[in-house]
Specification:
283 residues; mainly alpha; 76% helix
Length: 283
C-alpha cells in the first residue's frame, strides 16, 4: 500500500506541473495530513516524550517531512521526474549504511547484492525516461538533498518506533513539517483563492493518501523490520510510478523502462534472502 500510494504521488505532482510552487504544495499536503492524523490521534493512546524522543521527532519532521518535500518538489521543477526519482533512490542506500552504523543492523551479502541490482534498475528506468531537462546541476543537487534528508528521517523514525506508535510519530512529524513550510503560507493562500477545484483536490489527495495513510502504513511496517531492509523496497516506486503514468496519463514508457523495472523487482527480492545459517556441529 505504501509503495503504490507513494508512486501515485509522483504521478499527481507531475500532473500539477508548474501550477503550484514547491512551498505551497508541501505546506498544503502536510497541513491536510496533519489535520487528518490529529483527528485520529485524539481517540488513540498517547505517550509523554522523553528529551531524546523530542530531538528525534524534530530530526524526522524537519528533515523528512519538511526539507525533503521542499527539495523534491523544487528539484522536479528543474529536472524531469525520472531523473529526480533516480537520484532520490540514493536515499535507501544511505539508510542501509546509517542503520548499520547507528542501529547495528547487518549488511549481509544478499542485501548489498540486491541493493546494487535494484539501484541499477532505477538507473535504467531513469535513463530510459530522461527528458531534456535531466542535466540541470541545481536540480540534481536538490534531489540529493532530498535523498539525504529522507535517510536521516527514516533512521530517526526507526528509533522512535521502539516505544511510540506509528500514528503518533507520523502526526507530530507532519506538524513539524508544517512549521518548516510556513514561510510559503502566502503561496498556499493564493492557490486556494485562485486555482481550480481539480488542483485543490489533488493537493487534498496528496495529503490524505500518499502522506497521512502511506506514511502511517510505512511506520507500522518499519516497527517490525530493519530500516535498511525496508527502505530498499522503495526501489520499486519508480517502476510502479512508470506503470501508473502509463495507465493514468497515457505516457507510454520505452521498452528499456520495463527492463529497469524487472531489475528493481529482482533486486528487492534478493534483499529479502537470508544468509545460510551454519550447520550445527555433529556429536
Amino acid at each position: 500500500m505504501t509503495l503504490v500510494l507513494w508512486a501515485s504521488a509522483f504521478v499527481a505532482i507531475r500532473h500539477l506541473g508548474h501550477d503550484v510552487t514547491p512551498g505551497a504544495l508541501s505546506l498544503g499536503r502536510l497541513l491536510v495530513a496533519a489535520v487528518a492524523l490529529s483527528i485520529l490521534l485524539v481517540r488513540s493512546p498517547r505517550h509523554r516524550f522523553t528529551r531524546n524522543e523530542v530531538f528525534l521527532l524534530l530530526g524526522c519532521g524537519i528533515a523528512w517531512f519538511g526539507i525533503y518535500n521542499l527539495a523534491l518538489n523544487a528539484s522536479e521543477q528543474k529536472i524531469d521526474a525520472a531523473t529526480a526519482a533516480m537520484v532520490v533512490q540514493v536515499g535507501p542506500i544511505l539508510i542501509a549504511l546509517l542503520a548499520a552504523l547507528f542501529l547495528h543492523e547487518l549488511l549481509t551479502s544478499w542485501l548489498l547484492l540486491g541493493m546494487a541490482i535494484a539501484f541499477g534498475g532505477v538507473v535504467v528506468i531513469g535513463s530510459a525516461l530522461r527528458g531534456n531537462g535531466g542535466s540541470d546541476l541545481n536540480g540534481v543537487l536538490l534531489a540529493l538533498l532530498a535523498a539525504g534528508t529522507y535517510a536521516i528521517g527514516v533512521v530517526c523514525q526507526k528509533v522512535l518506533l521502539r516505544r511510540l506508535s506509528g500514528l503518533e510519530v507520523t502526526c507530530y512529524a507532519c506538524w513539524i513539517g508544517v512549521v518548516v513550510c510556513l514561510p510559503w503560507v502566502g503561496d498556499l493562500g493564493h492557490v486556494v483563492a485562485h486555482d481550480s477545484t481539480s488542483t485543490l483536490a489533488l493537493i487534498v489527495y496528496l495529503g490524505l493518501f500518499p502522506t497521512a495513510l502511506a506514511f502511517s502504513t510505512w511506520a507500522f511496517a518499519l516497527r517490525y523490520t530493519d530500516a535498511g531492509k525496508q527502505s530498499l523496497t522503495t526501489f520499486l516506486v519508480p517502476a510502479i510510478a512508470t506503470l501508473m503514468a502509463w495507465l493514468l496519463l497515457d505516457e507510454v514508457p520505452p521498452a528499456l523502462a520495463f527492463v529497469g523495472g524487472a531489475l528493481c523487482v529482482v533486486g528487492v527480492l534478493v534483499t529479502r534472502r537470508k544468509p545460510k545459517e551454519p550447520l550445527a556441529p555433529q556429536a
